[in-house]
């Protein structure tokens, strides 16, 4: 530290002395000194033992700081705060009993226990009823095991099942299941409200009916439920809107009512072990009667005769059977259990009676009189759907995870203990009810045979009002809890921003309440109330809960099977097989219960899933579906690694090598459009650019370039991947990319690279990079496509007509045939016609060649016009010698003159233009690099402003103008080389081929929308003159053509005539 202080003092003295001497000190040095002193001051605050890590501590926290932040992590969702309010007291952390066990007990025990369980037992019998309850309890137990594993795999913020599923299966599944859970919770509120109204109107105040005697008309009953349910919903909605505190306090009262009611039922069962004389039923033969005073239950009474003998004509069944009084509650000691063992399923309209004789259950005369009939068709699966809501509510503990002292301990223990407790109560109730109550009374859903009394209430001790009041209050409390929780769940989904149209429901009121979500919840709940029937609502909401539970099991199974490193639950008593069994049970129960309700729930989930996938925000939550995709990809890649694909499966896996300009923008945008148009082959597309430099210094620049590249790919709708490579040399970087890109069998097999339009102006570096890339592609046995005039290519959203001409000079694996077929699959090229040209020499039979080519195309299933062009042997023209001589002179002349790049461009273009004007008559399209500064246009008297497709487009001009501004040294050098140099015969023959082919191609295909031809191979000798000559040959070959695609195969067949 003393050394550092001395250094600071010396620096300060130097600065002061320079000021006194009148010298101007460098601002940059001053800034660096300030930065250095700031760094030294910061280091002075670092523990001397940590100097080795001083650079890391700026971006990475010290271990003590990190652990402290983890230990003090708050997993509750912060509520809205009042700035003027006093700071609240820290909330008490709840344990297992208060935080998980009791809330689960309250939510699981519901209205079905009191108003439907006896009917389920009587209809299904003791055996089937036990199986129904056991099946539902198994579903929830297996789901609880899976949920415990997920909940103990790290800290679970408040959000419950939605949070667990969305973070385990991804935003698509999470959003879909979250909406299903929200809908199920909302419909549960509707069911609780209708159930509460049913308890009041049917068993407590039947005189309050506003639609007449509902015991004789089921429609009147359901209309009463709709009207009173709507009124009760509005009242409860106002309570939730105004006083959430009241709802939370009322939950304690409701819980106490539930526990006391169940205790009263158990005490009553053993108190009435020998039955009681409170309830008697009137039975005609074996049929159960209603609205018959027990004192009038005799055949001799005029009351009965008036009912069954109107107009002095008696009912046959009445005449043939006796009337008897039957005790309703017989007690466990009576042995009535054996009468209730087997099921008594009925169809709608059949009479409730002992046994299964058709004469007793069938309504032959279509007259019901006072006999009780089945209001719905009952089956084993339907009863599962009706009972299943009784076992829901297992998520209550996980929903409160933010308020628990130790959520990872409390959630598994509390939830599983609650399920064991409730399952024991339900299963024992099935047996006790079957052993206590007469079969006919059990099947009397609304207690019409005993004067509209609740069966369970008349079993309880000390009297029925304990159950009536307790069940009403508990049902009311459950409804308030649902109306409170559902809007908050919807708000949590909206705040995750995975479903865009839910954005308005993410806002809270000034008091922090989800008012908008509450209004929507009330509207949906009202739709459920309009159904007016618990027996319709129960199976419907069962679907939504079953879907939710099924996805919880799926999430646990996926995470376990994938064995992701982050999957380390503290709860160890789980297994993927249990989760799969739970998932299978959920799906089976859904289908068995009601296949059409299952389709509704499944369709809703699929629609939401696809909507989130299409319009939702991209979220990366480290979910299991992504892990499953990685596992599937790994499996597929390992299989693809077994060998190269068959010719029939070959498709272009494209590697686009995009050049970036100084602003890090792709130089040729339409190269991405062209890749998209080739994607009809459904192959892989990878776009890569190479930056020159040191990656450690320009890493941020590479990130920006990758972002830009990705944006261009998105704009052009290229489905694939992009990357940036930083290398010391562009050529070496391109070579590395071509050799190493891809993974296993998903390596690109086709490279698209742009044509270097400014190769003459930029000199050897430009063509050397291009040719080196061509050689590397060939060495890797990959196909190569070089689009020339790329910015004249059509956009992907345009449609063009005309011809696509294929000039098939040499067979190169059939790629020339496959590419136009793939292009025609895209709508841009769909209206184009294919024309295939091939060249015949003097010794070839052109007629037979055309016939064979047509046959070949027929077997390939490709429709195209065929033309064979004959090229006769002709003497090499003077122009060919002149052009070859000009090509060979260029490099020697430039070396002798020692010109710079700008003068290089002027002299070369002067010579080329001179020979164009002297020997060529047809106008040509010349491609130049529009990104270089063309200062010669400013110096020329005949300046012409160029127009192009875009700023990077190669330009289309008329025949180039000659420049008369050559200096004397250039003219002398030109004459000197012309007199002394003779062209090489090898170059002359190649130039002759290029010129002759170009003449034929221009004649036939000048107006074609695209010309596809073979790309000649690069020279084997790595010499500047040979490489420059190769580039000149390609220029000559493509002169006069606007859009050219030069193709070179990868050395294997890519198309076959076989199926």
TrEMBL record:
NCBIfam families assigned: 2a30 (TIGR00930)
Primary site of residence: membrane
Region of interest (Disordered), ranges: 1-40, 922-978
Glycoprotein recorded as keyword: yes
Any single biological process term in GO: chloride ion homeostasis
Keywords carried by this UniProt record: Cell membrane, Chloride, Glycoprotein, Ion transport, Membrane, Phosphoprotein, Potassium, Potassium transport, Symport, Transmembrane, Transmembrane helix, Transport
Membrane topology according to the record: Multi-pass membrane protein
Highest rank taxon of the organism: Eukaryota
Name of one Pfam family that matches: SLC12
UniProt subcellular location: Cell membrane
Catalytic activity annotation: K(+)(in) + chloride(in) = K(+)(out) + chloride(out)
GO MF term list: potassium:chloride symporter activity
Keyword Glycoprotein: yes
Similarity field: Belongs to the SLC12A transporter family. K/Cl co-transporter subfamily.
SLC12A transporter C-terminal domain ranges (all copies): 673-786, 801-881, 970-1059
Residue stretches spanning the membrane: 94-115, 127-156, 176-204, 225-244, 250-270, 372-391, 411-435, 540-561, 573-590
Amino acid permease/ SLC12A domain span: 99-269, 377-655
InterPro entries, A to Z: AA-permease/SLC12A_dom (IPR004841), KCL_cotranspt (IPR000076), SLC12_C (IPR018491), SLC12A_fam (IPR004842)
Cellular component per GO, a single term: synapse
Protein name: Solute carrier family 12 member 6
Comp. bias (Basic and acidic residues): 22-40, 935-949, 964-978
């Amino acid at each position: 530290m003393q050394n550092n202080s001395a250094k600071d003092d010396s620096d300060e003295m130097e600065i002061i002395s320079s000021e006194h001497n009148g010298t101007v000190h460098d601002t940059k040095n001053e800034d660096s000194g300030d930065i250095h002193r700031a760094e030294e001051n910061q280091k002075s605050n670092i523990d001397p033992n940590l100097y080795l890590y001083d650079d890391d501590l700026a971006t990475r926290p010290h271990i003590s700081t990190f652990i402290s932040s983890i230990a003090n992590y708050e997993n509750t969702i912060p509520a809205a705060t009042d700035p003027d309010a006093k700071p609240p007291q820290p909330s008490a952390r709840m344990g297992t009993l208060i935080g998980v066990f009791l809330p689960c007990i309250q939510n699981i025990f519901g209205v079905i226990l009191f108003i439907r369980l006896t009917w389920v037992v009587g209809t299904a019998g003791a055996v089937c009823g036990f199986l129904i309850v056991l099946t539902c309890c198994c579903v929830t137990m297996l789901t609880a095991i899976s949920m415990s594993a997920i909940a103990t795999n790290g800290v679970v913020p408040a959000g419950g099942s939605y949070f667990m599923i969305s973070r385990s299966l991804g935003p698509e599944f999470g959003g879909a299941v979250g909406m299903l859970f929200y809908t199920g919770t909302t419909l549960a509120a509707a069911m609780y409200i209708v159930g509460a109204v049913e308890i009041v109107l049917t068993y407590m105040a039947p005189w309050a009916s506003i639609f007449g005697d509902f015991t004789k008309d089921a429609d009147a009953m359901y209309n009463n439920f709709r009207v009173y349910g709507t009124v009760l919903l509005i009242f409860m909605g106002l309570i939730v809107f105004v006083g959430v505190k009241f709802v939370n306090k009322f939950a304690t009262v409701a819980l106490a009512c539930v526990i006391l009611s169940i205790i009263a039922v158990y005490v009553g069962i053993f108190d009435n072990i020998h039955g009681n004389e409170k309830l008697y039923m009137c039975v005609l033969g074996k049929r159960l009667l209603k609205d018959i005073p027990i004192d009038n239950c005799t055949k001799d009474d005029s009351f009965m005769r008036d009912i069954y003998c109107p107009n002095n004509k008696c009912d046959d069944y009445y005449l043939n059977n006796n009337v008897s009084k039957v005790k309703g509650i017989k007690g466990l000691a009576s042995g009535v259990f054996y009468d209730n063992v087997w099921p008594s399923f009925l169809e709608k309209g059949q009479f409730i009676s002992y046994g299964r004789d058709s004469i007793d259950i069938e309504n032959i005369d279509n007259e019901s009189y006072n006999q009780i009939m089945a209001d719905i068709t009952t089956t084993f699966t339907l009863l599962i759907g009706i009972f299943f809501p009784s076992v829901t509510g297992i998520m209550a503990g996980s929903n409160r995870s933010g308020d628990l002292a130790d959520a990872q301990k409390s959630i598994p223990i509390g939830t599983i203990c609650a399920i064991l407790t409730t399952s024991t109560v339900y299963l024992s109730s099935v047996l006790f009810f079957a052993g206590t109550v007469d079969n006919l009374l059990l099947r009397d859903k609304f207690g019409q045979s005993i004067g509209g009394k609740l069966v369970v209430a008349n079993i309880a001790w000390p009297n029925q009002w304990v159950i009536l009041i307790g069940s009403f209050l508990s049902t009311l409390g459950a409804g308030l809890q649902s109306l409170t929780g559902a809007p908050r769940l919807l708000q949590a989904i909206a705040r995750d921003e995975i479903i865009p149209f839910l954005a308005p429901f993410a806002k809270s009121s000034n008091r922090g309440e989800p008012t908008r979500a509450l209004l929507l919840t009330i509207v949906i709940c009202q739709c459920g109330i309009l159904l007016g029937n618990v027996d319709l609502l129960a199976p419907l909401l069962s679907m939504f809960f079953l879907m939710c539970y099924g996805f919880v099991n799926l999430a646990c199974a996926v995470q376990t099977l994938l064995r992701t490193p982050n999957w380390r639950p503290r709860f160890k008593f789980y297994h993927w097989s249990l989760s799969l069994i739970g998932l299978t049970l959920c799906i089976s129960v859904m289908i068995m219960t009601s296949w059409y309700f299952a389709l509704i729930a499944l369709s809703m989930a699929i629609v939401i899933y696809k909507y989130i996938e299409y319009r939702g925000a991209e979220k990366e939550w480290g979910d299991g579906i992504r892990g499953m995709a990685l596992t599937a990809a790994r499996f597929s890649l390992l299989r693809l690694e077994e060998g190269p694909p068959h010719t029939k499966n070959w498709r272009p896996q494209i590697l686009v090598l995009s050049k970036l300009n100084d602003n890090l923008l792709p130089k040729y945008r339409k190269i991405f459009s062209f890749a998209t148009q080739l994607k009809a082959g459904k192959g892989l597309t990878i776009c890569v650019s190479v930056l020159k430099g040191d990656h450690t210094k320009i890493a941020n620049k590479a990130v920006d370039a990758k972002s830009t590249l990705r944006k261009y790919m998105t704009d052009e709708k290229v489905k694939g991947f992009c990357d940036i490579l930083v290398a010391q040399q562009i050529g070496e970087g391109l070579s590395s990319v071509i050799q190493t890109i891809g993974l296993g069998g998903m390596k690109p097999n086709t490279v698209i690279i742009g044509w270097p339009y400014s190769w003459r102006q930029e000199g050897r570096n430009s063509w050397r990079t291009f040719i080196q890339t061509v050689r590397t592609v060939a060495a890797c046995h990959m196909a190569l496509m070089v689009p020339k005039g790329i910015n004249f290519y059509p956009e992907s959203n345009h449609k063009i007509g005309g011809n696509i001409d294929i000039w098939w000079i040499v067979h190169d694996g059939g790629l020339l045939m496959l590419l136009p077929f793939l292009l025609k699959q895209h709508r841009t090229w769909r209206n184009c016609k294919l024309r295939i040209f091939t060249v015949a020499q003097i010794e070839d039979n052109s007629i037979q060649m055309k016939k064979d080519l047509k046959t070949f195309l027929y077997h390939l299933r490709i429709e195209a016009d065929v033309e064979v062009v004959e090229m006769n042997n002709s003497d090499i023209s003077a122009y060919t010698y002149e052009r070859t001589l000009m090509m060979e002179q260029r490099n020697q002349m430039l070396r002798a003159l020692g010109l710079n790049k700008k003068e290089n461009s002027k002299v070369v273009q002067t010579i080329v233009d001179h020979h164009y004007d002297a020997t060529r008559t047809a106008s040509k399209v010349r491609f130049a690099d529009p990104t270089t500064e063309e200062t010669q246009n400013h110096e020329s008297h005949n300046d012409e402003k160029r127009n192009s497709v875009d700023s990077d487009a190669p330009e289309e001009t008329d025949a180039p103008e000659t420049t008369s501004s050559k200096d004397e040294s250039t003219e002398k050098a030109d004459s000197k080389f012309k007199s002394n140099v003779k062209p090489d015969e090898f170059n002359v023959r190649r130039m002759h081929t290029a010129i002759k082919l170009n003449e034929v191609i221009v004649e036939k295909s000048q107006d074609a929308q695209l010309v596809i031809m073979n790309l000649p191979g690069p020279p084997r000798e790595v010499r500047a003159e040979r490489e420059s000559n190769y580039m000149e040959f390609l220029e000559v070959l493509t002169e006069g053509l606007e859009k050219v695609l030069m193709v070179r195969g990868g050395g294997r067949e890519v198309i076959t005539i076989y199926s």
